[in-house]
Amino acid sequence: MTAEGDSGLLRDTTRVTGHEALVQNIEAAMSLANAVRSTLGPFGLDKMLVDDEGRILVTNDGVTIIDTARVEHPAAKMIISACTIQDEVARDGTTSTILLASELLVNAWEMILQGIHPAQIAAGYRLASEAAVQALPDIAREMNGDNELLEATMTSLAGKGQSSSRTHLAKIAVKAAQSITVVSKTGPPMATGDGTLKDEAEETGMSGGSESGIRADPTLVKVISNRGGVTTDSHLVRGLVLAKSCIHPDMVDWLEGGKILLIDGGLERRAPSLDATLKITSPGMLNAFRDKDRDILRQQVDAVIALAPNLVVVRDGVDDEARQWLADAGITAYRRVESPDLDLLARATGATMIHRPESADAQALGTFASSREELWYETTHWIMEGSAESGATLVICGTTEEVMAEAERCFDDALGVACQLLEEPYLLPGGGATHIALARRIRRYAESIPGREQLAAEGFADALEVIPRTLAENSGIDPIDALLQLVAKQTTHGDWIGLDAASKSPEDMDEKAIREPLRITRQVIRGATDSAISLLRIDDVLWARQEPTSPDESSTKIDSDK
Ligand code: ADP
Ligand code: MG
Questions:
Q1: Among the ranges 87-96, 351-360, 435-444, which has the highest mean pLDDT value?
Q2: Whose C-alpha lies nearest to ligand 1, atom 9?
Q3: Is the pLDDT of residue 251 over 70?
Q4: What is the pTM of this model?
Q5: Does the CB atom of residue 151 touch ligand 1 within 6 A?
Q6: Which terminal residue of the chain, N or C, has fewer Cβ atoms less than 10 Å from its own Cβ?
Q7: Is the CB of 499 under 6 A from ligand 1?
Q8: Where are the domains of the chain?
């Protein structure tokens, strides 16, 4: 059904319409899912990614894989964007999001072949996903103590990296998360269902009440890598650490508290602007210009000195003369501190960044608790502890860049999970238990939906089972048998029966300590449903100029499944 656009406006586009458009989009989603399927769960395998310069990246992280793979197809890009949001919001559950979105689309296609309209499927999926979100608190239970926090963090790292470093990284992630928690007055806004649905879960009354009033913002933790040592030497430092030393030998590099000034700019002579022409007519003129520039710089530095900070941190450069003047005034300074770090410093010290020292007042100053320098593996590091949201820095040690990069990704996931749990301390069973429990509930709920949307809700329930099925496959057991056993045991032993990858059998996930944050699963369901629905609504794709191909040419063709 591919047709060249016939109007003048669409001359340079290739147009794919109707079912053809949908088939292509679903195929793109499937090939994306196939690319990450084998990484799910504790026995998931790693992927080796090679870029065009031959650099190698070995990872188990869904979002890293699809970020690195060059994906052209717009439909795949839409799912990737849902997955990236998942990564930003929850830091975990990215592979699950892709798998669920793709499975929803595959099931939708089967329904379309039976004559159900995509809009009806979308409506049914929406109902089912809201029902699922509402039912989550019913399955969940409150987290109990630090040990469960650590265990959930460990679960999120299952299958990533080596087990010795995993435990270590999980422990410091929990410590980091705890060190940045603050009790907020209003509490974080907690996403809840829009309440349009009445079902059994609502009666638990928990869906709106699970926030803790605690804020743990993972962006307060900075990660730096330090070549030397092994991953288990990685450690957490209170405050912000930068591989820098102060800019003048006379400056004091050990301060016990004081005031700090942050300059979003430099203390430099102005660079001559490019289109200016200087016409030198007398011998002293060039010197006069230089003197003028020096005066301006002097005024700037004087303005800084007048504010009386103990510490000055500058985003750009500091000229030699200015360094000397600052050192003479007893001020310690650091330069070329990148914007994100300056931001962290501002948050840690309560300082406001200034652009021009001449127009700043003392209110812009922040306070810090300590500032010192230490030599680690032959590099000087500046360690600054603020007074406000002090933050923390994880120093990742490792022998190679690759090992450190994977350790950083593990730590990011673990930190995200720990922060989520501190903010919303509710746990769900892992090992696919939650998905099976939800599927059981949604099948029951579907009976109450009139019309064809009912079939779509059932299709949604089937799609949820992709998680336990894939976990079974990756553990090397038959997915159909595993699913049957799980469902059977859940009906007698309750929602917390899931697949234990180690024993390859249905077990109580609470006993096996395989638990996950409620918030992550909720985000997976929402993100996957949203991207599947938006793809279902598309029946017209206009390609500019040439038609890119699916991300993976060997992708499963939908027709061959039939
Ligand atoms: P994602 O990117 O979606 O987080 P992961 O590769 O981290 O993907 O896998 C997470 C899945 O693995 C979750 O569904 C979790 O319940 C499951 N899982 C983790 N540990 C175990 C275990 N020991 N046994 C069974 N399933 C597990
Ligand atoms: Mg994970």
A1: 435-444
A2: 41
A3: yes
A4: 0.77
A5: no
A6: C
A7: yes
A8: 13-142+428-544, 145-217+400-427, 240-390
